[in-house]
Amino acid sequence: MHRREAPGAGRLSQPVGEDHIAARPPSSAQGTEQWPALRELSSIDALPTSSYRYLLDLDDDLAEQLDLRMRLVARQVVTAVVFAAPAGACDLSRCFAQVGHGPGVLILDGVLSVDVRVGDRTATEIVGDGDVLQPLSPRADDLLERSSTWNALIPARLALLDDAFAERVKPWPQISHALLARACARTADLDVQRAITSQPRLEVRITLLLWHLAGRWGRVEPGGIRLALPLTHRLLGRLVGAERPSVSHALSRLSQAGLVTSRDGALHLQGTAEEHLAALAHRASARRETETDDAAVGA
Q1: What are phi and psi of 75, to 5 degrees?
Q2: pLDDT, tens only, 121-153
Q3: 198: which strand partners?
Q4: Separation in Å, CA 58 to CA 88, 130, 155, 192, 217
Q5: Do strands 224-227 and 79-85 pair parallel, antiparallel, or not at all (unpaired)?
Q6: What is the CA 132 to chain-centroid distance, rounded?
Q7: Which of 112, 118, 158, 289 has the most crowded CB, counting CB atoms within 10 A?
């Protein structure tokens, strides 16, 4: 498991397996293991030692930060409590209560949505394997009330990286640096999403968002990209700053234009991102010309 860097829009260099959007099946060595449920987390001290796992066995990217000799030594020390989160509402408050000054909650596999609510509006972020979640801690200069909720879009596994974990990994700063780099990458992803939501036309916002998500969770197929995330119209609306009915109408128009289709529980992006944007620009230009002609006739 590792967090993939998203390639350029419309230029996925190689097929991406569906294992990137589903919980990792247990290996033969782990087939009989039972991951504790998230709801069982009340106190780290109350957990059996068997709840701890070798994190470098579960996160290939972290393991690759160390050479083989270091890895053999670190493997026995770099451990964390791992929990299973079924699909649906995911209350991470108990996890965050145990984090202390540790890095946070690491998503080993699965896909979650993070909802942040301010006033009567909710904005959403999609996170997945490799991302590190931290509690929404109030700051002294905060003037607005806000709240966060989490949902597992598909079953997920989470690792608790608490104070004790931070102490254990001190001999290998490469691990902390890798986790910090992931946090920076997540911030960069949010910047891209923010830029997408600044587009005035909803069809363009949705198109850009789908290609942005496809860079990480898409799978190359003949003629385009298959995006098999459970994206409801309401969820898409919260990702691009629109109401659900408007999203439904926009997706219908994209489907009629042959750009985005839905079948087999997945969205299919036909062609490339550049072709999508060119087609939408042409449609907008044609619409403006029609409106200009109609206005001239009316005059």
Answers
A1: -55, -40
A2: 999 999 999 999 988 777 778 888 888 999 999
A3: none
A4: 23, 10, 16, 29, 19
A5: unpaired
A6: 11
A7: 158
> DSSP states of 240-277 as a string?
HT--HHHHHHHHHHHHHTTSEEEETTEEEEES-HHHHH
In the block, tokens 């409106």 appear at: 291
Helix segments in the chain, DSSP class H: 55-58, 60-63, 68-75, 93-99, 163-168, 173-197, 202-217, 233-240, 244-256, 273-298
Cβ–Cβ under 8 Å, residues 259 and 271 = yes
Q: Burial, 220: exposed, middle or buried (Cβ in 10 Å; 0-12, 13-18, 19+)? A: middle
Strand (E) or helix (H) holding 107 = strand 104-118
Under a CB-based contact definition with an 8 Å cutoff, are residues 91 and 150 in contact?
yes
Give span(s): CATH 1.10.10.10, the chain.
200-298
Which of 30, 22, 70 minimizes the C-alpha distance to 169? 70
Strand bridging mode 260-263 / 52-54:
unpaired
Which residues on adjacent β-strands are paired with residue 47? none
Residue 214 is encoded by which pair of tokens?
């496809």
Mean pLDDT, range 246-267, rounded to an integer: 94
Q: Which of 43-52, 201-210, 268-277 has the lowest mean pLDDT?
A: 43-52
Contact call for residues 151 and 234 (beta carbons, < 8 A): no
pTM over 0.90: no
Q: What is the CATH code for 200-298?
A: 1.10.10.10
Tell me the CATH architecture of domain 34-195: Sandwich (2.60)
Q: Where in the chain is the domain with CATH 2.60.120.10?
A: 34-195
Strand partners of residue 151: 89, 113
Residue 232 to residues 23, 113, 214, 217, Cα–Cα distance (Å): 20, 12, 16, 16
Strands of the 266-270 sheet, one edge to the other: 218-221, 224-227, 266-270, 260-263
